Amino acid sequence: MSLDRRVTFYHAPQTRSSGTLALLKELGADYDLRLINLRAGEQRQPAYLAINPMGKVPAIRHGEALVSEQGAIFIYLADLYPEAGLAPAIGDPLRGPYLRWLVFYGSSFEPAVTDRSLGREPAPLARSPYGSFDDVLKTLDNQLEKGPYLLGERFTAADVLWGSALAWTTGFGLVPKTPAIERYLGKVTTRPVFARVAERDAQWAAEHAAAAGQG
């Protein structure tokens, strides 16, 4: 029996979930879109809290499976569409590094950037989930120096996540645009999918703003 791979994707424009939208398009995935209007507070309404009690996007539903957290979503979707070639298979030497960088984003990079943006001192090294901001940036920068992609010559779902993340964090001045990061963004975010997502997100965001203003 063939697997029904169509997913339901919960998305708010111009948020972290934009990276997931880019991934769905890179994969050529079948999906139903459910837009969440953050301006109207839909993410805190019971209907969406039943999907993700954290009230955050992105989230996906595939059959009876609900998946939240960006790293988990990227792993799930790229494995669901193996023919797209965006996920090294189990047994491939790149599988471990691929998973490492998908998880590193949420476990180290996001907490470090959040603390830095709020001017908070990180926890003592023995208790910090990421060590220090400088260590996180250096670790990432050293990997990108090997380029052109995170895993060298192979473009993967991890690059969709990191390209999207670094575009907005450098855009807001939260992360310095080192030469390695700048080269990486020039390679990844110039892919046609990123421009299409940005254009569609801008349209949805304007519609949500107008709808919230009428409410």
Automatic annotation (TrEMBL):
Cited InterPro entries: Glutathione-S-Trfase_C_sf, Glutathione_S-Trfase, Glutathione_S-Trfase_N, Thioredoxin-like_sf
Protein keywords: Transferase
Gene3D superfamilies, alphabetized: 1.20.1050.10, Glutaredoxin (3.40.30.10)
Transmembrane segments: none
Domain GST N-terminal: 4-85
PROSITE patterns assigned to the protein according to its UniProt record, in alphabetical order: GST_NTER
SUPFAM superfamilies in the cross-refs: GST C-terminal domain-like, Thioredoxin-like
Any one GO molecular function term: transferase activity
Isomerase among keywords: no
Keyword Cytoplasm: no
Protein name, as recorded: Glutathione S-transferase
Species of the source: Pseudomonas panipatensis
Species classification: Bacteria, Pseudomonadati, Pseudomonadota, Gammaproteobacteria, Pseudomonadales
